[in-house]
Specification:
The structure holds 2 protein chains of 2 kinds. By secondary structure, chain A is mainly β. Helices cover 0% and strands 48% of the residues of chain A. Chain A is built from no helices and 11 strands. The termini of chain A are far apart. In chain B, the strands form 2 sheets. In chain B, strands 1, 3, 4, 8, 9 and 10 form a 6-stranded mixed beta sheet that branches. In chain B, strands 2-7-6-5 form a 4-stranded antiparallel beta sheet, with no helix packed on it. In chain B, a hairpin with a 3-residue loop joins strand 5 and strand 6. Classes of the chains: A mainly beta, B mainly beta.
Chain lengths: 114, 111
Amino acid sequence: DGGITQSPKYLFRKEGQNVTLSCEQNLNHDAMYWYRQDPGQGLRLIYYSQIVNDFQKGDIAEGYSVSREKKESFPLTVTSAQKNPTAFYLCASSPTNPTNEKLFFGSGTQLSVL
Amino acid sequence: GENVGLHLPTLSVQEGDNSIINCAYSNSASDYFIWYKQESGKGPQFIIDIRSNMDKRQGQRVTVLLNKTVKHLSLQIAATQPGDSAVYFCAERGGNNRLAFGKGNQVVVIP
């Protein structure tokens, strides 16, 4: 059953804590993305990666970090520097060529601050 | 994720009627457009896409229309069903080759 798996579905963060959101895909897609969704807002790009061991900042990268050690995996760490982390986080993937077309999304992780 | 539809424009449609969801885009250089459906607490689901060299594309029960003159995109859903209730949003791919997403429209299907 091909697709994108995000975990956990719900995550709670304490003050000063770093948390990591998992994203795994078995679609053999080269490109992967992390978006943040706030109520009533459009998706905003945090980070993206077009190939293993390479990634670029999106529009709101401050307070976040990523890694791309494997093609299938693109974890996102929300660091303590992110002062407003409460949001719905969406991971997506797409074929590299062409880029940024027909993104397939995971089911999301809702992050809340305790 | 639970409140993705908060404060969004809402379209109420009777079951069986056709729905039209509109999207105004900002970049006249955008070359690709895509529509997604998002149900509460879930990730967006691809519906249909269109390139700027086309003005119409049809899928199963859905049609996307592109009017580049007025920078307008619309999604038509035929014979709307209760399962079509969701937030629908469009995205455009602009000069920086990134997708820019709209805020979305809430569609409520009345049985």
